[in-house]
Amino acid sequence: xxxxxxxxxxxxxxxxxxxxxxxxxxxxxxxxxxxxxxxxxxxxxxxxxxxxxxxxxxxxxxxxxxxxxxxxxxxxxxxxxxxxxxxxxxxxxxxxxxxxxxxxxxxxxxxxxxxxxxxxxxxxxxxxxxxxxxxxxxxxxxxxxxxxxxxxxxxxxxxxxxxxxxxxxxxxxxxxxxxxxxxxxxxxxxxxxxxxxxxxxxxxxxxxxxxxxxxxxxxxxxxxxxxxxxxxxxxxxxxxxxxxxxxxxxxxxxxxxxxxxxxxxxxxxxxxxxxxxxxxxxxxxxxxxxxxxxxxxxxxxxxxxxxxxxxxxxxxxxxxxxxxxxxxxxxxxxxxxxxxxxxxxxxxxxxxxxxxxxxxxxxxxxxxxxxxxxxxxxxxxxxxxxxxxxxxxxxxxxxxxxxxxxxxx
Length: 409
Prior knowledge:
The chain is mainly β. The chain is 8% helix and 22% strand. It has a domain at 259-335: Immunoglobulin-like (Sandwich). The protein has helices at residues 279-283, 365-379, 382-392; strands at residues 45-51, 66-72, 86-89, 108-111, 154-158, 175-179, 237-241, 247-251, 259-267, 272-276, 285-296, 303-308, 312-317, 326-335. The strands form six sheets. Strands 9-14-11 form a three-stranded antiparallel beta sheet. The protein has a three-stranded antiparallel beta sheet with strand order 10-13-12, with no helix packed on it. Strands 1-2 form a two-stranded parallel sheet. It is elongated and about 130 Å long. The two termini are 19 Å apart.
């Protein structure tokens, strides 16, 4: 087989739509005799293709050395298409066997490890008319990682309009979900937490300034592992269903100290009776300091508590009365597990949301590239470092020559 070390095709042959084409065995409709249409090696690139007007240089510092380099001035530099499989397959580092089988029915425009960056433009842009614009999946690591120096790490919007901005804060976050018509952020899970909020300051903040709107809504049981404080003049309430189908609000009583209370009923026998405390109630109060309030439910000389113990208390009728009147009682005891609570203790207000911060100037081109290189070095494996050393030892990049006609035969 003859080898042409200076082969150059410029598509100048009249009546041909391609500059170079290999023949099918037996002419049109025949079979392919080769595994590959072209095999090419070069110190700077295996194959360099230029579409449209000739260009004299490679575009960008990261494409100087490439197995295949495509460039164009006014249209797509590299295009890959497939009828039934992957249009473009890209892989970082060499592996003998893929860590997972590639499904035969996979349809993708690009299947690759992708890293995109841009100083003033979009690093990676994906668009679709009817499906996901960008889909990312990982078998062992993060599916999508996004970061920003000055703005949101990830900004997701649904619909044509964004949602309202949050007052008294920077509106800059690692992840922002916004919509003028739909939910801003949805988190779901079958086996664990749907949404996790964690911070050294405030884990989750629900905020609204619209009269009648809710800063938070829970449909189902709510558990709080910690203190609950309601700030404001409006008391804590409970919406109770009424027979007419409406809900009516009942309110909690407030106290400057922490108490538990219990209720019961008993009956005197010849003017006296011993009432036992509920065993479970006695376990959660300071049993040496509880209060008992008595209400007789019949005619008598009056009732009083003669003595109290950790397990019971005795009730007697005044003036050594001998009646058998029934009565109800209310017991109030301090919580056993609460210590150090002062009456009317001052409330330590939560730290307010962060104030709006001034925008920092955009990074310079040199600083932007330096940060990208720093991150690449941090992620580099030994094989990648070896490859970098081999590339650094190569001669400087050679400019792509202008298209020239092949010598006359």
